[in-house]
Amino acid sequence: METKNNWKAWLYLAPMLLLMSVFTFYPLINAFIISFYKGFRPLQNSIEGFTLLGNYLLILRNPLFWNAMKNTFVIAFISVPVSIFLSLAIAVGLKSIPKLNKFFQTIFFLPYVTNSIAVGMAFAVMFHKNYGLINAILERLGFAGRIDWIGGTSSWWTQMVALLIFTVWESLAFKILVFTSGMQNIDKQYYDAAKIDSASKWTVFRRITVPLLSPIILYISITSMIGALKAYNSVIGLFGIKLGNPSNSMITIVAFVYKYRAELASPGYYSYAAASAIILFIITVVFSLIQGVVSKKRVHY
Amino acid sequence: MDIKMVNLTKIFTSKNRKEVQAVSHVDLTIPSGKLIGLLGPSGCGKSTTLYLIAGLLKQNEGQIFFGDDEVSEMPPEKRGIGLVFQNYALYPHFTVRENILFPLQNLHVPKEEAKTRTYDMAKLVGLEEMLDRKPKELSGGQQQRVAIARALVKKPRVLLLDEPLSNLDARLRLQTREEIKRIQRETGITTVFVTHDQEEAMSISDEIVVMKDGVIQQMGQPQDVYDHPDNLFVAKFLGSPQINVFDSTIEAGKVLIDGMAIGATELPDQKVIIGIRPEGLQVDKTKTSPFKFEIDLVETIGRDTTLIIEVTSEESTLLDKKTFKAIVDAENRIKPKDVIHFVVKPEKMHIFGLDGNRL
Ligand SMILES: Nc1ncnc2c1ncn2[C@@H]1O[C@H](COP(=O)(O)OP(=O)(O)O)[C@@H](O)[C@H]1O
Ligand SMILES: [Mg+2]
C-alpha cells in the first residue's frame, strides 16, 4: 500500500520535477560548473583550465562586490520588516472599513500589475530635485532646502532612502492582499471573544491577529526576503543603468551578476558572474533556513 | 442582578434585501441568580438574543437593563458579561492558563491576583492540572470547561452560554450539564443557557423560556410549562416522546375524538385541537372506554412500556404524524395486536383553539 502510494506520488510530481530539472536545477548546476572555469570565453566556448576557488576569491577581493552586498543587505533588512509591518497595519485598517476595502485593494494592487522598471521611472521623476513631487511636498511642509535625492549631487544616503521608499511601496500591494485574505480566514469568533474579554484594539492586533497570521507572515517574510536579496529592477528603474551616482554606488548583487555577465568579450568575467550568482544562491538558502528554524518556535500553526 | 429586556428587536437584512426579524419585540426579565434555559428550535433567534445581551450585536429597537443600569448602548467590553461560545472560541495559540488569564490582563488586574484567580478558576472547573496545555490537546469537555473558566474569571455580572453542550457526546453532555449546574450554584451568577434540546433545558434550568421565530412563547418553571403549555408549539416542543395531537370537537361538554368521548370540559361547543401526553393515556382494565385502538408495536424499557399505534385511515384526526404513542406501566403486559381501551388523565389533556392557543 505504502509503496504503491509512493509510486503514484512520484508520477504526479513527474511533470513538475521535469520542468524544475530543465529550468532550475540544470542552470544552477551549470552556473556552479562555470564558476570553476579559468579564463572562460563564452563566445569561443574555450577555457584555460579549472580553479576551485579562484573566481570566488577574486569576487571577495572586489570592493564592488562588497558594495553590492552592503546595498542588498540594507535593502533586505530594512524594506522587508518595514513593508511587512506597514502592510499588516494597512490590512487591519482595511478590515475595519469594509466598504472601502475593495477600492483600496485595487489602489494598492496597481503597482503589482505594473512593470517595476516603469514604476521606478515614475518614482525617479517624483524624486527629481527641481520638479519632483517629493520635494514639492517637503517644501509645503516647511523644509526649504531642496534635497537632491537621486540626481548628480545626491549622496548614498538620499539614494538609499529613495530606493527603500520605492521598494517598500512596490512590495506593499502583494502583502496587503495576502494579509487581507489571511485575515478573512481567521474565525470571527476570536474577535467576538476578545471583545467579551475586554481586549483593546492594540491587544487584539498583537495577541490575536498577528499570532493567528503567523504562518502567513512567515511565508511572506521568507518570500520577500528572497525577493529583496534579488533586488535589481527597482535599482535600474530608479537610477538607470549607471546604477546610481557616482556610478555603481547603488549596485546590488544581481546587478553585479548582470554587469559581469554582460562582459562577454573579457575572458573569465562570465565565471565571476556565475560565482557571484552561486554566492547569492547560498545566501538565499541560508536565510530561508534560518527563518524556517527561528520561526518554528514562534509560529503558531 | 437581573436582566431586563424591553421590546427588544433585531432585524437582519440578508443579501437579497430580505428582512429577518431574528428577535421580535421580546419583553423578558431574567431573575437574579437564576439559571434560565432559553429553548427553541434552530434558527429561532436564541444566539441573537444572547449576542444582544452581550452587546456583540446591536438591537434595532428596544432596551436592555442589567439591574437598574441601562446597557443598550454599552459596548460589550463594558458590560461585564461572560460568554461561552458554541464552539468555545478558545484562542488556539494560548495555553489554558493564558486563555483564562487573558480577560484579567485586559482589565489590568495586578499580576499576583490574576495568577491566583486563574488558578482558583481552573480548580473550580477541575482543570488545574491542565494549565499548560493548548486547547487542541484537550478533550471537548475540557475545552468547554476552559471556556467557562475564561468567562467566569473576571467575575462577570452575567454568564451567557450558547449551546455549550452541543459539541459533546451523550455521556459527556450529561456530566457537563451537572457540572454547569454546580458551578452556577456555587457562584450564584445570573445565567442564560441556550439550547435546542428540551430535555437539557428542562433538567438544568430554574426556569425555561421557549422561543419560536424570534418571539417568546412562554416562560416558567420547567414542570409548569410542561404541565400547562400556553400553545400547541410549546406543548409539542416539550416532552419526549412528543405529545399526541388530534383534531377534535367539543359537544355538550364532551371532548370527542372521532366521535369517541375522551374527556369532559366546560368549554362551549366548537372545533378544537387536543393534545394528550403519551403518559396521560391509561389502560382501561374495565374495557368500557370507547377510546380504543389495536396496538402495532410495543417497546418495553424497564418500568415503562411505550405502545405505538399506527394510524392508517385517511380520515384520521391525528395531526402531524402517522403514529401516536402511549406510555403505560409494564405490568399491563400488552402485546402487539391487542385491542386496548384508553382513558385519558384529565390533567394530561390540553385543549387548544384552531389558532394553536390554549383555551
Ligand atoms: N449575521 C446574520 N445575518 C443575517 N441573518 C442572520 C444573522 N445571524 C442570524 N441570522 C438569522 O437570524 C435568525 C436567528 O438566528 P440565530 O439567533 O442564530 O438562531 P439560533 O441560535 O436560535 O439557532 C435565523 O433565521 C438566522 O438565519
Ligand atoms: Mg445558535
Overall tally of domains of chain A: 1
| Class of secondary structure makeup of chain B | alpha+beta
The CATH architecture category of the largest domain in chain B equals 3-Layer(aba) Sandwich
Strand content of chain B: 25-35%
Low-confidence stretches of chain B: none
Q: What structural class is derived from the secondary structure elements of chain A?
A: mainly alpha
Provide the residue-averaged pLDDT of chain B. 91
Strand order of the largest sheet of chain B: 6-7-8-3-9-10
Radius of gyration of chain B, taken over Cα atoms and rounded to an integer in Å: 24 Å
Helical fraction of chain B? 10-25%
Q: Detail the poorly predicted runs of chain A.
A: none
Q: What is the CATH fold-level name of chain A?
A: MetI-like fold
Going by CATH, the homologous superfamily of the largest domain in chain B would be P-loop containing nucleotide triphosphate hydrolases
Main sheet makeup of chain A: 2 strands, antiparallel
Tally of contiguous helical segments of chain B: 9
Which two chains have the most extensive interface, and how many residues on each? A-B, 18 and 23 residues
Distance between the termini of chain A: 30 Å
Ligand inventory: adenosine-5'-diphosphate, magnesium ion
Oligomer: heterodimer
Topology:
The complex is a heterodimer of chains A (301) and B (359).
Chain A: H1 2-34, E1 37-38, E2 49-50, H2 54-60, H3 63-96, H4 98-113, H5 116-126, H6 133-140, H7 156-184, H8 188-196, H9 201-229, H10 233-239, H11 253-262, H12 269-298
Antiparallel strand pairs in A: 1-2
Helix pairs in contact in A: 1-12, 2-12, 3-7, 3-9, 3-11, 4-7, 5-10, 7-9, 9-12, 11-12
Chain B: E1 3-13, E2 19-30, E3 35-39, H1 46-54, E4 61-66, E5 69-70, H2 76-79, E6 81-84, H3 96-106, H4 111-124, H5 140-152, E7 158-162, H6 170-187, E8 190-195, H7 198-204, E9 207-212, E10 215-220, H8 222-227, H9 232-237, E11 244-251, E12 254-257, E13 260-264, E14 270-276, E15 281-283, E16 292-294, E17 297-301, E18 304-310, E19 323-329, E20 339-344, E21 349-352
The structure holds adenosine-5'-diphosphate and magnesium ion.
